[in-house]
Amino acid sequence: MTNPIYVTKPFLPPKEAILSYIDEIFKSGRLTNHGPFVRQLEEKLRDYLGVKNLILVANGTLALQLAYRALNLNGHAITTPFSFVATTSSLVWERIKPIYADIDPKRLTIDPTNVKKAITPRTRGIVPVHVFGNPCDIENIEEIATSNNLRVIYDAAHAFGVRYKGRSVLNYGDISTISFHATKLFHTIEGGAIITSNTEIAQKIRRMIDFGITDIDKVEGLGINAKMNEFEAVMGLSVLESVNDILENRRKLWSEYYDLLAGHVQFPELAPYTDWNYSYVPVLFKDESQLLKVRERLNQNNFYPRRYFYPSLNTLSYVNNKRSCPVSRNVSGRILCLPTYFGLEDEVVKKIAKVIKEGIAK
Ligand code: T4K
Fold this sequence. Notes:
3-stranded antiparallel sheet; alpha/beta; 12 helices; globular; binds ligand T4K
């Protein structure tokens, strides 16, 4: 039997590239705490992405928690039920109550009409997700936020390299956060970043990620340890050198799947004015039983797609406010993300598509 094919596989840069950075780390002895490689990566990412302030942190979950803290978010926040668990758990962890607004059935992002309906006097912010890198309905969300004096924190964990109306989607909202986990197309093993065009907030976050320490004998305000280390940063610097090839490869793989599977499964609709990153290959089946049948068949052939994202977050055991979100519940039950990563062979994509079609026909 062939090797198992998982939903993703981290990109590993050429060993020599990373080893030359590691040599420098060994020479300097600087392992963490604002080392030169973290700074270098921040600068390069700011340029590459076209954003004003970018602060590297230890992971995408802490990035969200720090964003809420930096904006003094409390009370209730309206969020999407269709995302990875961290979007909700970060809110609950910070004692902010998630209030769910159901998603658009085609784009799978939060529906602004439902956001509007969910607003109460206790609402302080909106936490939408550019799920699979597909931009939310940004203009309508901004309009609702402005007229109701709400903060917007975009969970842009999947949105590396995505452009909306010609500029990085990370430029929207009060803050956007991103994940650089090993499973992401650009990664630093573990890691993430906080992006904001507000320099004052950026400075506050810089203090917060290092215990509130601002100078050798000075602590200014409450902080935590959320720093990225030098080894993670050099992984990022090495991956960044190949990121255009990685993006191009994702586009090619997505197109191959689309050509083979359109008409057999449903592909989510992309927001207009978007240059997408093709970071995931989500496909929707007719219903959950068809999905389970197809998945079983794929697993028998050593292919392991993932149910991103299941279950619908409004059904989590620790969530108090179990508003009904029929669209998210329905989508969560019948969506599967197909394997996609640098180095995945065309022949394997063809085989996966064939097994899916056979599973549907059965
Ligand atoms: N917001 C959103 C919308 C997110 O999607 C995420 C994370 C976050 C916030 C939080 O960001 P972080 O705090 O994680 O930075 C993965 C990732 O752990 C998670 O980062 C990601 N989203 C989520 C969508 O997916 P799992 O549970 O699917 O990971 P795992 O270990 O099952 O990996 C999937 C497959 O990848 C494995 O079957 C094999 C392969 N793999 C994985 C790793 C880690 C490898 O081949 N090598 C590896 O080192 O969560």
